[in-house]
Amino acid sequence: MKKIIFLCFCALLASCASDEDLQEINTNEKELANMINDYELVLKGYSLDELKKEKDELTPTTQEETVAEPWLIKAIQDSIAQIQFSDNIRTRTEAGAYTRAVNMEGVFKYETCGGYREFVYFMDCEDGGDTHSTGNIGATRVDGNGNVEFHFCVIPTGYATGGVLAFYLPYLYTENMHVVKRHHDNEDHNNKNHIIDNAGLASLGPNYFDKNTGFFWKFEWGASGKLPFKFGVIGTAPLPGSHNILWIDDENGKNANQAIRWTGPNSSKGFDLPAEKDSYGITPGRNTRYEIIQI
Fold first, then answer.
1. Which phi and psi angles does 240 have, rounded to 5°?
2. Residue 37's domain spans which residues?
3. DSSP letter for each residue of 118-140
4. Which of 82, 89, 218, 251 has the fewest CB within 10 Å, making it most exposed?
5. Low-confidence ranges of the chain (pLDDT < 50)
6. Is residue 111 within 8 Å of residue 103, measured between CB atoms?
7. Residues 34 and 114 reside in one and the same domain
8. Which pLDDT value is given to residue 77?
């Protein structure tokens, strides 16, 4: 029954997305996102008492790691897609004629961003989990409660080789390019995800930052520009040598993580990245391992 209710809810969102008055959804965008999150929590089997329980980030978790059923993962992704669609319309409406002349992307901040703006995002990871870092991951840090504060320098395209956060929808038919979407099923209980500084961006592209997180990492080789400061990209450092690792403990209960890779030949559907196997510096699974190369 829960499955049927949630699929009907997703169908309702889809019908709204096809309506000529879709822009009206934008006024209730946060409410819709919260509704999706509430349905997700109900389907995962949380009781009202569990949802009202005080947040505890310091006591080591004893919750078993389990994986969500495929239909639930698909339903969650379909719902997110509708929110993304309505958000894109709102962005175009609000931005009007004012748009950036070039596409922007995020690289990991180290010491400074020079004259570029900084995008800062707080990710609420598994309460009492094992989120940690090794090596030098720059300004991005794991706090005392096991959450991550991401710091990105927002730069024009063409300056970075490796994995960068795309704040626009990349053209996949460019040679030597692919895109990986990493959906993080973040902490379910009283989630505190939030953007601290949006760097003045009119659009976040296909990324989403709500109760769960969707990073769209663009991998491209052959950058033509050069930045006057140190920065980091996703990639795999050669052996032997030091490695800068950010290990994120994602939600334990019915985890709905997803990692999809798109290239030109398979740009319509993409394909799932294998769990627990490094792919260009991203190791997906029930948790997430990022390797950051300092440039």
1. -80, 170
2. 2-95
3. EEEEEE---TT---EEES--TT-
4. 89
5. 1-2, 4-27, 86-99
6. no
7. no
8. 84
